[in-house]
Amino acid sequence: MIGMNTKDTYQVGPTSHLYGVVLADPPWRYEFSKSNSRKIENQYQTMSTDDICALDVPSAENAVLYLWATAPKLVEAIRVMGAWGFSYRTNIIWDKVKMGCGHWARIQHELLLVGVKGKFSPPRTHLRVRSVFSIPRSKHSSKPSEFRNLIARWYPNERKLEMFARERADNWDAWGNEVKCDVELGGNDFTSTSADCIERSSP
């Protein structure tokens, strides 16, 4: 059955557009900015939390979600996780090494929240890693490929979807407004036109 893993084996079922692994990096909208030149919208299109919650995520009955959250958007991220049908389990910290901006503190980290839907086992014991990764940040909002690769190593046989993808990766389906999509998600107008998305079945 797709989306159901066991302690010793990972099983994948018939081709479908339901995913056992979902990685998402939502374009959070912020309500404050010191100046128009510092607005995130100058970098990329954002979405309200309500619109992110309304996305029809094609997750399997048993699935895991890895959801990126900035420190100011932690509460909203937990809300999104619940709206998508997942329950929070833990998080991984990305130490960006370089200090950034912030109102209460100069933010140097982001959180990768982990949520589970139905029955889904964690990585096998010998594959589990430390919870803090120190990797220098690159261009604005770009996430290190090390995290995507790590998740793929944990679940090699699960069908995987990256939401809000900025590039395509081997063995991952993608959805977003900067890539050619593999699926269409209901409840959104984030992608520029639905024609940009193509239906593709992976073995």
Report on the structure:
By secondary structure, the chain is α/β, with parallel strands linked by helices. The chain has one domain (19-196): 3-Layer(aba) Sandwich (Rossmann fold). It is built from three helices and seven strands, in the order E-H-E-H-E-E-E-H-E-E. The protein has helices at 49-53, 74-83, 145-154, and strands at 19-24, 59-69, 87-95, 109-117, 132-134, 160-163, 173-175. It is globular, with a radius of gyration of 17 Å.
Layout of secondary structure:
Elements: E1 19-24, H1 49-53, E2 59-69, H2 74-83, E3 87-95, E4 109-117, E5 132-134, H3 145-154, E6 160-163, E7 173-175
Parallel strand pairs: 1-2, 1-6, 3-5, 6-7
Antiparallel strand pairs: 2-4, 3-4
Quick tags:
203 residues, alpha/beta, Rossmann fold, 7-stranded mixed β-sheet, 3 helices, 7 strands, 12% helix, disordered C terminus
Main sheet strand line-up? 5-3-4-2-1-6-7
CATH class: Alpha Beta
Approximately what portion of the residues adopt beta-strand conformation? Answer: 15-25%
Measured distance between first and last alpha carbons: 14 Å
CATH domain fold name = Rossmann fold
Chain-averaged pLDDT = 81
* Domains, number: 1
- The total beta strand count reads 7
- Assign the structural class, choosing from mainly alpha, mainly beta, alpha/beta, alpha+beta, or little secondary structure: alpha/beta
For the sheet with most strands, the description reads: 7 strands, mixed
The DSSP helix count reads 3
Helix-strand string: EHEHEEEHEE
Instruction: Tell me roughly what share of residues is in helical segments.
Output: 10-25%
Gross morphology: globular
Name given to the CATH homologous superfamily: Vaccinia Virus protein VP39
Residue runs with pLDDT of under 50 for 5 or more positions: 6-16, 192-203
Q: Which architecture would the CATH scheme give at its second level?
A: 3-Layer(aba) Sandwich
Radius of gyration: 17 Å
